Amino acid sequence: MIASPPRTVRIGSRKSQLALVQTHWVQSELQKAFPGHTFEVHTMSTQGDKILDVALAKIGDKGLFTKELEVGMLNGDIDFAVHSLKDLPTRLPEGLMLGCVTEREDPADALVVHEKHQDKQLDTLPEGAVIGTSSLRRLAQLRHHYPHLAFKDVRGNLNTRLAKLDAGEYDALILAVAGLKRLGMGDRIHQNIPSDVSLHAVGQGALGIECRTEDPEILSVLKVLEHTPTAQRCYAERAFLRELEGGCQVPIGVHTVIEGDTLTLTGLVASLDGQTLIKDTVSGAPDTAEQLGIDLAHRLKEQGAQAVLDEIFATIQRG
Ligand SMILES: NCc1[nH]cc(CCC(=O)O)c1CC(=O)O
């Protein structure tokens, strides 16, 4: 038998600090598992990294943070790409697939406050306090529960956002717990936002590794990093979002748990003004995750979710 030759595997990544932390973790785990291969990181800028002065909701989300990496895979310049799963569209280009979902960090959102509000929580922030978020999902849910707060868009990487907060442009920010922890800034988390106040984004806190459909060797390499319970939860979440035809820039939130042999998926569609929240829950076997997501989407549509989404798409296009 002839041993397969050592192969150099090229990993694609965005250049942001968070993307690099995540990609270097994948690189080192795979290097340990496959000492005969060499894993190299190749960075690329995506559209989402370049356009920093326009609200995300207005640019849309069709692969804003992923397209250049996908072209790289299809060209053969890179072998796979590491993404924050929540930035990966639910429909992938022909020839590419979601090859691996890694173990999830805490998927919740976090409240990060200006130092003058150290003694406050979401419930006790004063009337008119300015909350920075670029996510319509966070905006709609927080507006619903805290109509006396003011909301303002914020863009840029984590350090830029935190600098704007500390400079007094905002009273507080809503950021993902996972991103803060991965960048060693867990000490800035002032409050974990409970799921009854705000459901998190689909795929939040997990990494999604995308690869070519016709590359079984790479796929088998990636599978060593797969975390089955996270993957099942995220397949349910992604099927729900796909069925609703929403991307990460629509007010759709989820929550999932696996207890014993049961996967429970809660999902929500919200109107931008926070007036209408349509929310429901389904449960079933974890290996039927995709069907659970589809079923929940249909239930929410029966309860009026489509009209809420149509109104949002119309508003964003007018904006
Ligand atoms: N949309 C930006 C983005 N994409 C992934 C994360 C980090 C959290 C994660 O891995 O889900 C963030 C930052 C944020 O939402 O605060």
Question: What's the layout of helices and strands?
Answer:
Blueprint: E1 8-13, H1 17-33, E2 38-43, H2 47-50, H3 56-59, H4 67-75, E3 80-84, E4 96-101, E5 109-113, E6 130-132, H5 136-145, E7 150-152, H6 158-166, E8 172-176, H7 177-182, E9 191-192, E10 207-212, H8 216-222, H9 228-243, E11 252-259, E12 262-270, E13 277-284, H10 289-302, H11 305-318
Parallel strand pairs: 1-2, 1-3, 6-7, 6-8
Antiparallel strand pairs: 3-10, 4-10, 5-8, 5-9, 11-12, 12-13
Helix pairs in contact: 9-10
Bound molecules: ligand PBG.
| Count of extended strands | 13
Largest sheet: 5 strands, mixed
| Low-pLDDT stretches | none
Rounded mean pLDDT is: 92
| Principal-axis shape | globular
What does this structure look like?
It is a single chain. With 319 residues, this protein is α/β, with parallel strands linked by helices. The protein folds into three domains: 1-103 and 206-226, 3-Layer(aba) Sandwich (D-Maltodextrin-Binding Protein, domain 2); 109-192, D-Maltodextrin-Binding Protein, domain 2 (3-Layer(aba) Sandwich), CATH 3.40.190.10; 227-319, Porphobilinogen deaminase, C-terminal domain (Double Stranded RNA Binding Domain). It contains eleven helices and 13 strands. It has helices at residues 17-33, 47-50, 56-59, 67-75, 136-145, 158-166, 177-182, 216-222, 228-243, 289-302, 305-318; strands spanning 8-13, 38-43, 80-84, 96-101, 109-113, 130-132, 150-152, 172-176, 191-192, 207-212, 252-259, 262-270, 277-284. The strands form three sheets. It has a five-stranded mixed beta sheet, with helices on both faces. A five-stranded mixed beta sheet has the order 7-6-8-5-9, sandwiched between helices. Helix 9 (228-243) packs parallel to helix 10. The relative contact order is 0.15. Bound molecules: ligand PBG. Residues 84, 86-87, 175-176, 178-179, 204-205 line the site of the ligand NCc1[nH]cc(CCC(=O)O)c1CC(=O)O.
